[in-house]
Amino acid sequence: MRSAPDPSAARARVELLLDPGRAFAAAREAPRGEWFGYVLIFPGVLLIGIVVLYPVLQSVLLSFTNANLLSPARVFIGLQNYRQVFADAEFSTGLVNSATLTAAAVVLELVLGMGLALLLREKVPGIQIFRSLTMASWVIPVVATVMMFDLMVLPQYGLFNILLDRLGLKQFDVFWFGNPLTAMPTVVMMHVWRNTPFFGIALLSAMQMIPQELYEAAEIDGASPLQTFWRITVPGVAYVAMIMVIIHVLWTSNNFDFVYIATGGGPVDSTLVLPVFVYRQFWQNFQTGFAASSGVVLMLALMTFTILYVTRVREREA
Amino acid sequence: MLSRRVFLKGVGAAAGAATLSGAWSLPGLKALAAVKTEIEFWSTPFVSGEVPPSFVKWFGEQQAEDLSVIAFTASYGPGAYNTQQSKFLVQAKTGIPDTLEGLLENMVAYIKAGDIAPLTDRFNAWPENTQFLDSTVKGLTFNGQLWGVPYNTNARVLLYRKSILQKYGLKVPRTWDELLETGSAVSAKESGMAGFMCCTNRASVRGPQEWISWYFQLSRHMFMQDPATKKWTVSATPAQFAQVFELYYNLFYGGSPSASSTTSLGIDYNVLDNGYGTGKWAMVPEGPWMYAQRLLGPQQAAIINDTGIAPLPIPKGGGHGTYLEIKPVLLNKFSKHPDAAWRAIQYLTSAKVMGEWAFVSGFIPPRKDVQHSERFRNSWWQKGFGEILPDGVYLDALNWAPVFDAIFDSLQTVIYKKATPTQAGAALHGKLSQLASGGML
After folding, report:
1. Domain of B291, in residue numbers
2. pTM reported for the whole predicted model
């Protein structure tokens, strides 16, 4: 008989991945046989290090220059780009919009993903097929997703507007991507539609690792379903939820294609997010150095968030 | 069953017989034996579907038959001009692609980056150079050098539904005021149809191209260059910009109902084109690519047949002027086979290839011999656009990307009522002056 997976062991492995210092310490203290495992992963770690570190270093170096894509001349200008970035009104708009989009999308994905996971956990006929189908939105290419939404939000003949018309809400029949009030919520909706199933499946797998005995004990003690959910399910999935939140905060903050294809950052900058801002500086204004400094600021903001969030979650768990 | 020994004997005998009979001299087999220089040509329309796949197939077959020393690879690069520009700016120095087509705006960026080769000497030595329209060659000449060979030219015009205007006794608008009146009348009378529509999506290059068409009716230049320092300054006035913004404002908010529906604000060129093809708007500022709509279905074919072509309406005190698009084929300065690449450019801009390409896509061929050929003379579509071509104004040789960006930023403030046309005109003038003084152009 297969033994139940040990959640604490899986968690320890994830923690090692998140903390290279501890990983190296663990490797030093590892018994002889385990060294072979570290040797096996070394090329992969080295490759990722080169692929990730080299571009990051290049961006940081570029950000201190006046580099321009159309001109080979490049001069070191110190912090001038950074001063310009923080004085730029469009950058501020991009920062606020990025934070709004990320917060709204990730919170909704987490809440709806939890609901989906609870639904998928039910043992009803056909649930396996339903579990497979839920990932459909994840595998559809981003361009196709945007085109699909673009068609659905068209005035008069888009699906959403037809439904609004039927409900007697004809006054809201507008092109949702073309209206400053509805453009950002529609972008959030696309993110949620695409990513919620991923949250759902990840949280479901975490739920399946919670020992059944805990639920049985809670039932014997007379705990209500809500108490069971808050006291057993939520703590049981908290760690996976944290990982998912970090991943999706990074993905959503860095996401370019959804916004650029759907709205280009408009109308009147209502969906201008930082990756689109960086793109405009790089590919439209060809200001490579300035674009790099904007990218570095975004990277630092995300690193700060990740460190603070992980520390806070660990403190709460401790 | 055939044994391996018998099979090999048969192959040997056949090869021997072929050698003795001289079959290796057959053209097909000879072509197989010859080594052709492979040329990579990037063409956005080949990939984006702007030209029918049947033409791309035709091109592949024809070039294999027609060209003895070069062969085009079957890879035609990215399917969008902005992606093509990004990729080319990054990888041109690898020598790939050898040639590419693009927009005039892209070409200026490539010249500034030093990624394309001047073609003046090669073009002057080509006996067919007299066939190309002077205006298109002039449009691709900067600082005394020719940088591309034109293969496509077109102008923005007013496309309108003849039956709709006729149904309500309306005339084709000739002035901005008439455009607003006619558009408003159609919006009021024809259910589910806006009188006029244009592209207002932030990411769509079509928007600024349309905007500048209206601007060219007020002035043929927006910037002027100091011949000595080569620095650009803004020659347009805030009042001229404000006048164009006023037109947009009135299109969306003037009249009751307005000529253009605010519910469709923010649409991109796909929605604009398909909206006209499916009867959502009665008038649009468009180019000749709309001819391809007829291939999408019977409804679109009927609407294209019901379409009239007219110059864009003009303002009081203005003159005819419209954005003239000239698409060139360019030679990568770092191509490892520049002579073969030049041969490829000659083939792409030959009467045969240009003629077929223009005919299926609907654009105006910039070669006189193609324009004078029977099928173009008899085409009402090409004829309609050809008559308006002299109104076309080509863009000055500067970096238009940040200019278009600034235009669109200001335009959005007007159409979303965040600024008055006067405020937007002043803001745009300020932004462009800043770009010019900062050496960004």
Report:
1. 157-323+395-437
2. 0.80
